[in-house]
Amino acid sequence: MNDFMYHNPDKVYFGKAQIQHLPAELRQFGKNVLLVYGGGSIKKNGIYDTVLSCLVKEGFILTELSGVEPNPRHTTVNRGAAICKQADIDVVLAVGGGSTIDCAKGIAAAAETADGNVWPLVEQKIWITKALPVVAVLTNAATGSEMDAWAVISNMDTNEKIGLGGSALIPRAAFENPEYSYSLPIYQTACGSFDIFNHVLDNYYFSQDAAFDMILEFQEAVMRAVVKWAPIAMKEPQNYEARANLMWASSLALNGILDAGMMHDCACHAMEHELSAYYDITHGHGLAILTPRWLTYLLDEETAPAIHRLGTAVFGIEKAIRPMIGAKQTIEAVSDFCFQTLGLTATLSELGITDEHFAEMAKHACGGRSLSGIKTLSSADIEKIYRMCL
Amino acid sequence: MNDFMYHNPDKVYFGKAQIQHLPAELRQFGKNVLLVYGGGSIKKNGIYDTVLSCLVKEGFILTELSGVEPNPRHTTVNRGAAICKQADIDVVLAVGGGSTIDCAKGIAAAAETADGNVWPLVEQKIWITKALPVVAVLTNAATGSEMDAWAVISNMDTNEKIGLGGSALIPRAAFENPEYSYSLPIYQTACGSFDIFNHVLDNYYFSQDAAFDMILEFQEAVMRAVVKWAPIAMKEPQNYEARANLMWASSLALNGILDAGMMHDCACHAMEHELSAYYDITHGHGLAILTPRWLTYLLDEETAPAIHRLGTAVFGIEKAIRPMIGAKQTIEAVSDFCFQTLGLTATLSELGITDEHFAEMAKHACGGRSLSGIKTLSSADIEKIYRMCL
């Protein structure tokens, strides 16, 4: 087991009857709240009214920033940071999915800088230790942003989608009511579910060492939960247990518990961020297209046992077969999960993506060096994986 | 999945090269440190010197309270609280196992009361929201106190051993260096390991509902880790991976992650606290004697599937057999683990305990009402379980 530091002070209120605690959680920071949300689905499904009704009567002063994009732009973040400065905001309240929470985190960080511009922080990979407090009301099980130290911000001028991290970006409180994800479209449920799955899988292979079994088994339990509950949530959007399992899986995937003593890798995530940055596609869909190809590219005699273990633990693949055969069956099972069960289209071509930018995307993805994981991937490797996805 | 609140702001520094961060963690609270430890083993194994050398050169003013008992007494706690008041202590630093940390927590709570007496807080079950900060340097994988909100304090005048809980009792930081447990005697390693195992098992049965599988599987992973690594740590006390797995299992068992969405029960713990309160025996040993009898007492057609599931997940019992047969094999496996693998004696008689106080102990254990769990236990049930342990 490697040395590690585990610290996650986020206070999670999980379940149906928790929003009543929101005023008390916000009040400790002040009365001036910046309410951040996306395209307005929270107005249709009533969550906006629920949040407002419990805040306005408590005397909070709300300023709104709406229209956060699915891959939140640095320009939107900067707009929010300017509001924070003008309106003397005490706390940033995100109501939405991962993009909205990421945007709120970017705002919280930028608001504490002199010029209120988030992009230099992102570009220079500044670890954020000072930010306005962020509180999240989650409506989509996917990114884990409700409980992690990261935000992903996109700059569409330069085709860049980059992570911004820092201890100060962990939300001070997260409200996770599975019912708030009932109205999520099937496609978003599928994409969010695969995002969770891949957060764990990206991390899973690095430590094929019995000393890490306990944590590997946690990871397998979370992936099994996604494989089990995602199709149920897609068929029965109001199945509470399905939504609850996916929502808590989302938080567990990135709250640090599954990393303790391991390396945290993110090869697929790094490759996918380029797809979203260039083509603004839905993150989880990009991941689903990449993942089976990534596994296929990694597969050799050395990696087969690890891939086979995933199959036996998560997809019910037989144990007592040759690892290479087991690994191939596992990759088949991952493909089936992505393209049959979750119903996502299987190629980049179907999303209108060509090989035009693959070379530069591959270089970006690995920061000009390489991506770590069960195997180190150079930009040449990454370009080949992109081509396998066409 | 039930509604829950998850909040654990403890900052865990895990591994070999972490003690260097101790001064910074303490400094934020002040310079006056109360150093709490037990019978002096930390002086023999060098941990005392390590801690001192990294604090004294940083200008901390240390006051010591040593001689904390294995089941810490309220009188010792009160002695510590008096020192805190006299010496204007800023932070209580526990260096030791669970008893030492529990004592430090009691001190931290009592120091904030007018009369510095912990017992009224314990007796009246006051939830502690105000206490001096506690920092823990852990030397024994067992109680989980390094990462939970609880302390167990004993009053030997009244034969009471009772939990004191509160959000303010969660350590602000915990230093977990598996090497610090290398010199632990085999018997303590065995008892500590079973304490961890039972923390999870006490909680395991309540929710035999597929909606909780993810968390049940986490629980099974922790129990498997204990079953795997405890005998290795006993045979090879300096096996880092064994000590590391046990230490992190200790923290995971009670840091809230394994409870999320479940009920937290503690039937065996409640029954055992009476044994320790009356006879001052080692907690983990008492638990080991109780657990197989508790399972035997619970076993019927209704509970058999849950007990059988434990066996298949943790002890390799066959799945495709009748639940009642599987459950019996499971209880046999738990017995073997306690009395063969861990080498603990199997009866209360061997510890010099008779049935003299069983009736009153049973009443105390359930607070005059009953103990919850997979089956509700009355004081009459508990007395029968005690008798099975003779």
Automatic annotation (TrEMBL), chains A, B:
GO terms for molecular function: alcohol dehydrogenase (NADP+) activity; butanol dehydrogenase (NAD+) activity; metal ion binding; methylglyoxal reductase (NADPH) (acetol producing) activity. Signal peptide: none annotated. This is Iron-containing alcohol dehydrogenase. It comes from the Bacteria. GO terms for cellular component: cytosol. Residues 9-175 form the Alcohol dehydrogenase iron-type/glycerol dehydrogenase GldA domain. Keywords: Oxidoreductase. Residues 189-387 form the Fe-containing alcohol dehydrogenase-like C-terminal domain. InterPro entries: ADH_Fe/GldA, ADH_Fe_C, BDH-like.
